[in-house]
Amino acid sequence: MEYPPPEEVQLLTRGILALSDLLGQEWQVEQLPSKSKAFDALLQVKAKGDNYYTQLMVEATHAVPPRFVMERLVPRVELLREVNHYTNMLVIAPWISSQTRELLRQNGIAYLDLTGNVDIRVSRPAIIIHTTGAEKAPKSAPRETSRTTLAGAKAGRLVRVLADVPPPHRAMDLHQASGLSLPYVSRLLDTLEDQLLIRREKRTITGVDWPQLLRVRAQEASLLTHGSYQGFLAPNGVPALLKQIPNLTMEYVDGLSVTGSYAAQRFVRIAVGGQLMLYVASWLDMEDVADELGLLPVTEGADILLLKEPDSFVRSRSEFIKAVQYVAPSQTALDCLAGPGRMPAEGEALLGFMEKFPEEWRASRNDIWAPPIRH
Prior knowledge:
Layout: H1 6-23, E1 27-32, E2 41-47, E3 54-60, H2 66-83, E4 87-93, H3 98-106, E5 110-113, E6 118-122, E7 127-131, H4 153-164, E8 169-170, H5 171-178, H6 182-194, E9 198-201, E10 204-208, H7 210-220, E11 229-233, H8 238-244, H9 250-255, E12 256-259, H10 261-264, E13 276-280, H11 286-293, E14 296-297, E15 304-308, E16 319-321, E17 324-326, H12 329-337, H13 343-356, E18 373-374
Helix pairs in contact: 4-5, 4-7, 5-6, 7-12, 12-13
């Protein structure tokens, strides 16, 4: 007789206990004996004293990438519904991403993760449970995909190329455009395919869900990390500062680039003003920049944020407007989605503009490394 691995048994046990706690003492959760290899456990759930019950076919797994949902779980649950309308599928995992949770809900598959993300809906007996847990994977939770993730500057490069340049792509094209190693590109493409962010036919990328790609990347890369920025006050205000930048030496003009709210407001506006965020290139010292601009360091109430540029690629396809450099719309959207306060809403509004007017911002296959446009 084959037995499931001990870690899977532990996951299943913890998931059943969590379900029992959510339902409370008036409900009974019983694991039924089953010889089927099609699922990990069969649970019977009923209210005490009630004749009605539901059965939950449990898939206990340590990783639930979107591709696994669409290729493995959805066909099984469709077959299950043809055979028995009163049996439902329940996925138990250490952690389930927001993208995967949405796919599970769309396909009527219940889920429970050990951080508290739960969605179980049964019509008879009536059960509706919806709770929210962790939005990011705990360090102890296995990744939903391979070890290559969308965190880090290298992944940011590939995301930008995939968003900015329409397919088709091959791994070699992306390697050349991003400057990343070919093995790394191949591993990250496998991750993106698992998350249904790209589509491939053989070795060619034929489709990119670039809005969702930018959202998922933003979840992995917070804009304001410890030590990556400093806050300042502009004595004469932000508009005066923007007029001051073109008067600096070319070293500073080329090394400072606007991102965040002020960059988004070139295309959409859901509010006026906000903090001016400036990327500072690696060849510039942040204190020297502050001195040149006459900024006052503050710990609270900053209207200027100077951010260390994580990678020169953030300036890829930037544009100069009245001699002030603005990062490309895709970089702006990424930074807004990964920013604090109202910035994610600005990022979503910018994505809406980008979807409606792709010709306003997408690149040709040859200009990803083109010099910034100057107006």
